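Hi support team,

I've been running sequence recovery on a batch of backbones for a student project. Most finish fine, but this one hangs at about 90% for roughly twenty minutes before it completes. I'm not sure whether the input is malformed or the queue is just slow. I've pasted the structure tokens below so you can try to reproduce it. Let me know if you need the job ID as well.

Thanks,
M.K.
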């Protein structure tokens, strides 16, 4: 356990050897620094993601005091109002109702219809990168693509999109372990500003509905159920945050892994039909979301250890995705890996609703880079972000030619 230090730059650079030690040492470990139980094995993580004795929230069954927890500070309320009404942090029956209604607007047909737009935008972004002889793959391609796509889906005008990424980054800071008070302050401010903006946009769409997701969320209903205004706002923010944070980081983590595995990059350049399996393998190999939390709603036992109600379990996605019990030679990047049950998109009722869109975006940007920048290479060694839960890079400098 001494080696597991999610604030240590050496650990953040490469946590996977430490995960191997955790898996070898047992199925569950108490981590005092965050008061969490760490679960490193794929079989346990996969089962716990479907376990109904665990929950993303406990407020549907308990008050804070009943559960042995302290209520968040009142000054954090705007963040929690925004976060706690999104389906990612709800449990049935609210989660079931909201996901069902959101699914009416966020259909496979809606996502499939975006394919030409995604491909065209990816091509234009890569053309610009090539024209300049290179640049930062993060800011030039990885970020603008998914932000523009989800903004297009939601119906956010291009002139209003500049604050979306900063708002998202500030809100997502609260998902790291033991966030600072300054992180909380930024998250609260971003929550207020983003919510105010969406209140105005929803009011406009109520008057003049369009062919966009916000209009679809307003119209979605089922047996008398409708989304409340707060649920619509929380859903839109969740779709933006989850809809691009993982894609951005999967893109840069993935290309950095390719540059460090030149044999696999050469194979991919020689055979672009590997793109679909490459996307899955790169999400497994360097997982963009390393940890996912659940509250223990009723006592649960893992390998003889009783974890009592009121505890928090931290499922280590990055470790599960490198478990040799499931993945043959897991430390090797293998773009032809066919049997790849990675859990980067979670599982169970909280399986990522945007997974099909993420796959389309990742495949589009990868294909555009392979076709238009076949000599793409690393121009400088990148720096890791000082984050653990959401794993990414500060930037990824590349050159063409």
């Amino acid at each position: 356990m001494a080696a597991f230090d999610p604030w240590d730059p050496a650990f953040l650079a490469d946590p996977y050897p430490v995960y191997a030690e955790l898996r070898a040492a047992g199925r569950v470990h108490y981590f005092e620094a965050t008061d969490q139980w760490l679960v490193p094995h794929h079989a346990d993580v996969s089962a716990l993601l479907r376990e109904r004795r665990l929950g993303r929230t406990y407020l549907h069954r308990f008050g804070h005091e009943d559960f042995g927890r302290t209520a968040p500070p009142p000054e954090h309320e705007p963040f929690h109002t925004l976060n706690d009404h999104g389906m990612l942090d709800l449990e049935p029956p609210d989660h079931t109702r909201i996901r069902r209604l959101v699914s009416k607007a966020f259909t496979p047909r809606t996502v499939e219809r975006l394919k030409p737009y995604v491909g065209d935008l990816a091509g234009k972004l890569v053309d610009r990168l090539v024209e300049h002889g290179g640049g930062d793959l993060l800011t030039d391609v990885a970020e603008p693509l998914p932000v523009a796509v989800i903004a297009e889906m939601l119906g956010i005008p291009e002139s209003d999109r500049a604050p979306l990424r900063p708002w998202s980054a500030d809100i997502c800071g609260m998902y790291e372990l033991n966030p600072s008070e300054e992180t909380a302050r930024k998250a609260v401010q971003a929550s207020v500003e983003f919510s105010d903006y969406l209140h105005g946009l929803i009011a406009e769409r109520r008057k003049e509905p369009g062919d966009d997701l916000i209009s679809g969320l307003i119209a979605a209903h089922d047996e008398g159920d409708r989304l409340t205004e707060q649920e619509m706002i929380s859903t839109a923010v969740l779709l933006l945050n989850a809809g691009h944070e993982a894609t951005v980081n999967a893109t840069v983590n993935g290309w950095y892994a390719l540059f460090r595995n030149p044999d696999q990059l050469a194979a991919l350049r020689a055979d672009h039909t590997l793109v679909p399996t490459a996307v899955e393998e790169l999400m497994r190999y360097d997982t963009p979301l390393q940890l996912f939390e659940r509250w223990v709603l009723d006592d649960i036992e893992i390998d003889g250890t009783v974890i009592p109600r009121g505890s928090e379990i931290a499922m280590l996605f990055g470790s599960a995705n490198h478990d040799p019990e499931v993945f043959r030679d897991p430390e090797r990047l293998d773009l032809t890996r066919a049997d790849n049950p990675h859990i980067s998109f979670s599982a169970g009722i909280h399986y990522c609703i945007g997974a099909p869109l993420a796959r389309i975006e990742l495949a589009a940007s990868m294909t555009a880079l392979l076709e238009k920048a076949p000599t793409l290479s690393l121009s400088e060694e990148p720096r890791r972000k000082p984050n653990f839960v959401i794993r990414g890079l500060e930037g990824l400098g590349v050159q063409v030619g």
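--
Follow-up from support: It reproduced on our side and the slowdown came from queue contention, not your input. The mean pLDDT is 95. No action needed from you.
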